[in-house]
Amino acid sequence: MTPPDALALPHVVEAIATGLGNQDDLESFLRAVPRSLWTPALTAFLDCNTAAPHSVCANWPRIELRDMDLSPEVLALLAATLPLRPRIQLRCPILDAEQLASLVAAVGPALNSHAVSSLLLQRCPHLRRVVIYVVFILPTGSIELNDLLAVVAHRHVKKMIITLPRAPPRLGYLLAAWLSTAPATKLRLSHVAQMDHDAVIAFCDALQANTTLTKLAMYNAPALGGFHGRTLPVSLKSLDWHARPNTVVDDATLTDLATAVGPTQLERLICSVFGQLAACPAAAPMLAQLQWLTVSGPSADISSFFYCDLSLSTELLMETLATTCVHIATLHIYAPHATRDGASAVFAGTVQSRHLTSLRVSMDLFDVLDVLMELVAAGRHLRTLHLKITFPNEETALLLEANEAKRVLCRALALTQNVPFVVDALPEDTDAFVVDALGPRADRGSRCRLIFT
């Protein structure tokens, strides 16, 4: 096929090719065009998959890099694709800043989402998300880390995730600069145990003045306390705040935290000290409009983020939700060791929270069976119930595997008059009468969906 004269120009061919939506269309078009009309950039893009098939995957409009150990020839090939403006993404860990420097020297303007060294800050103007994850710092790594943190002040990054046990003093100032100049929407800080006090105050001041942040997550960041008397951004919709496991949060931090959240328009809260926070008068305005809440009980899983001691009893917790958090629509309770009375209080309290439509809870099988009537009553109030069945000990877990536990509960529910539940995914080998009572049917759309997790 010979293209019309008007199309027989390399730059026209390139313009058409880059306007196509996927790799198949790109290849089909180029196969119909003489290779002599391909631009060097188009040729380089198609050659990426054969030059380093295990390291580079070119799938228009993206190029995925699966290895940082790239030869000079491959780097040159990647650089040659830049006129096409491909979306270059890193799908591999960065273990050597020197390799990253070589890569960005070649293709920096096309990178848009990865953890990056600050030396390359000006070469990556399209960054939108930065992740910095440091488990430990080698003696020789402090200078490199200090340089790396300059990226925190990037003017165009919207999302920042930082895990940094030993934060250099400048981190607070860099975060303050980012919050003051960038269109920040999401910030997550984990294990920030130490930071210069003046830097902390600079960060908290900038946080209070910010007007774009919508999500903030703080996991074990004692250096920042409860934000030291500052309030959180008026734009904030979601807050995760978790103290270090098995530690007591002092009254001053709780008061500061309540002061910080009080004037906000939070819709979603995940908090390891919710019981204590709910008792602080300063938090009341925020609680009144809260729609989504996760609280948790003591957990034996040390890898879990959801730690807390429910300092409010379960009964008082549910009463607080009904009288204070009157707009709660979604509630997650992580309390695998809740007592029978606690299980009863959760289900009974559900009925009192008139806007609550979705409940996610972990409970012991035998406690659930003991409070079956309360469970049924809750089902008549809810639209969705996510239930994770736990066991009182390992011996019981070995004797009664998860599917059998679900079958036991489903049999009990199926024998209930006017059962309010429908179960989309019943356990294998479920009895026919249970399927008839709980299985999905067109006329059961108004029932509460019981979902086993």
From TrEMBL:
InterPro entries: LRR_dom_sf (IPR032675). SUPFAM superfamilies: RNI-like. This is F-box domain-containing protein. It comes from Saprolegnia parasitica (strain CBS 223.65).
